[in-house]
Design goal:
Chain lengths: 273, 309
């Protein structure tokens, strides 16, 4: 059993400090977050509430007609518990209008479209409300590439991107996310019956232990096998990380000049802030 | 001699020299108001830390107008500034500069530039080539910047060069969460070495760290002053801005060294002889030799004359 350190008291302090600092240095005071009803967005929203105060957090609920009814109920539960303002933007009409033209689209295309539609809504309200889009992707899904590029992976700042799902659960519990949300089975809820662990083929608890040793502790493959992880599991996860690298990078730019953006033109994002 | 030492722990604006100079002035004024004798600013606090390609545009030379302002400010309160310093031959250094009575009294160019993991300093900075103690009007001190102190040779040299206090400007990022440990792992390590070095070398450790975030990387603050007995005299808040002012008595170095004269007993010749031997003998050179153990690294001869700033 691998224990991933999860000092929730310290994490809470660091992550609220991160949100406050990174928001305020942009000259803004507020954030916009898409609340799905799941534990990641619940935790992000509650950390932001603690960092900035409830008046500076706007939660946007963006259900589709097939979304699980619990999703909305749980999102509302979080909004109530944290006292943040919520607004609804049902994405059904725009999604259905689009896929009327492409009726043969498979669930993956439909799911990605929904994630990206939600992103455009968040960024629209970001501009309207002068709030940064708050990310909700955790380290597990970022490493596995289990997210939609330019969809749910898009944000201005992300407090959860260095926390494994296991750590998200622990911190969510410590910060007071209702138990029913922490305990429920993780799902992107892009189609009926979808679950993360069903789709991935392993549980978050299993893969987090592997990722922690592989990524954070730099265990080699033989060391991981000695630690008790099946070789096929190790290979599968290593492959997922490699093949999803493109999702964690900016688009590839053809270099022709002396100084190409992000290759030899290197500046921090917080440049001048 | 008792001196009132201040540490300004704050969050500089990345790549904005003007804004940070104003923050310096504010803190120098505050130091004067609080009757400080000496003020320590964190590493690269005049510029921010993750500068990357902005290094050349925030670099200061002896002729920069900002240098004149800083010199002027030091007439009322001597201080250590953390800045990008450009040499006459256009190398850029991560430097700590001690200003006193309107003049630059000492410059330390960071020797150990971390270039691993999250750090990339050697890509942007030239490496300093000396460790020295220097005489301030308060006594003999040394300046060592952050990672410098993670190499025990630096403080060893400074202590043997007569330093009574180590002034360490730092930009130490928080990383590594440990269960049951109140602060991050970097903070734990720093607090351990500050205390160990203070006691081992019978010196004051005056450690000034910054706070705030740059591109998601937080700096943990927690600046502190530890006396030669290993007692922590002052501690700033973690993760937040702070302005510490503490009176230290340099006589306690004398008392400590009277009780445990470790430095007096240090055998410099033995150390030099053994180092020469280790340098010559490939078998003992596991750390610096080639992976296969065939090549011995060439050591540069020390330069004849120190370069002038």
């Amino acid at each position: 059993m691998v224990v991933i350190p999860t000092n929730t008291t310290l994490l809470r302090e660091i992550l609220t400090g991160f949100i406050r600092n990174e928001v305020q240095k942009t000259g803004l005071a507020r954030v916009v977050v898409g609340l799905s009803g799941g534990v990641d967005s619940a935790l992000s929203a509650m950390l932001a509430t603690e960092a900035l105060g409830p008046n500076n957090v706007l939660a946007v609920l963006m259900p589709y007609k097939t979304s699980h009814p619990d999703s909305q109920a749980h999102a509302e539960m979080i909004a109530r518990a944290s006292g943040i303002e919520t607004m609804f933007a049902d994405i059904t009409p725009q999604i259905d209008a689009y896929f009327e033209r492409f009726p043969d689209a498979d669930p993956r295309r439909r799911g990605n479209k929904m994630a990206r539609e939600r992103m455009t809504i968040l960024y629209d309200h970001s501009a309207r409300w002068s709030g940064l889009v708050l990310g909700t992707s955790n380290k597990t899904e970022l490493l596995l590439g289990y997210g939609t590029l330019h969809g749910d992976m898009a944000s201005a700042i992300n407090p959860l991107g260095d926390l494994y799902k296991t750590q998200v659960w622990a911190l969510a519990e410590a910060i007071g996310v209702p138990e029913v949300i922490v305990r429920k089975e993780p799902s992107a809820d892009l189609w009926v019956g979808q679950t993360d662990e069903g789709e991935l083929g392993f549980t978050y608890r299993e893969v987090d232990q592997l990722l922690y040793l592989m990524v954070d502790q730099r265990y080699t493959k033989p060391e991981l096998i000695t630690a008790g992880f099946p070789e096929r599991f190790v290979d599968d996860v290593a492959r997922r990380i490699m093949f999803s690298q493109f999702k964690r990078r900016l688009p590839v730019i053809a270099k022709v000049s002396q100084r190409t953006i992000d290759r030899d033109f290197r500046y921090s994002r917080d440049w001048g802030k | 001699m008792s001196i009132r030492v201040a540490i300004a722990q704050f969050n500089p604006k990345l790549g904005d020299l003007g804004a940070n100079l104003a923050l310096y002035e504010e803190r120098i004024r505050q130091g004067i108001k609080e009757r400080a004798d000496l003020l320590l600013f964190p590493e690269l606090s005049l510029t921010g830390y993750f500068l990357r390609d902005t290094v050349p545009s925030v670099a200061l030379t002896v002729k920069s107008p900002e240098m004149k302002t800083l010199k002027q400010l030091s007439r009322e309160l001597p201080f250590v500034a953390g800045m990008v310093e450009e040499s006459a031959d256009h190398r850029f250094f991560n430097s700590a500069v001690y200003f006193e009575d309107g003049e630059i009294q000492h410059v330390h160019r960071k020797v150990y530039l971390p270039t691993y993991g999250m750090f990339d300093e050697q890509r942007y900075f030239a490496r300093g080539d000396r460790v020295r103690a220097f005489d301030s009007k308060f006594g003999r001190f040394t300046l060592l910047i952050c990672e410098d102190l993670w190499h025990p040779s630096t403080i060893y040299l400074a202590a043997l060069d007569g330093a009574l206090a180590v002034l360490c400007p730092s930009a130490s990022p928080l990383r590594g969460i440990v269960d049951g440990q109140a602060q991050d792992d970097n903070a734990r390590y720093w607090e351990m070495i500050n205390r160990a070095y203070a006691e081992t070398y019978s010196v004051f450790m005056i450690y000034g760290n910054r706070c705030g975030f740059e591109d998601g990387v937080g700096f943990w603050g927690g600046s502190e002053i530890v006396d030669p007995f290993g007692q922590r005299l002052a501690k700033a808040a973690y993760y937040d801005e702070a302005f510490l002012v503490t009176e230290i008595s340099l006589e306690s170095v004398r008392r400590k060294r009277t009780m445990s004269p470790l430095l007096r007993d240090e055998d410099l010749d033995l150390t030099i002889n053994e180092l020469m031997r280790i340098r010559e003998r490939p078998a003992a050179l596991k750390v610096v030799q080639g992976y296969k153990g065939t090549k011995v690294r060439e050591f540069k001869k020390p330069k004849a004359k120190p370069r002038k700033l």
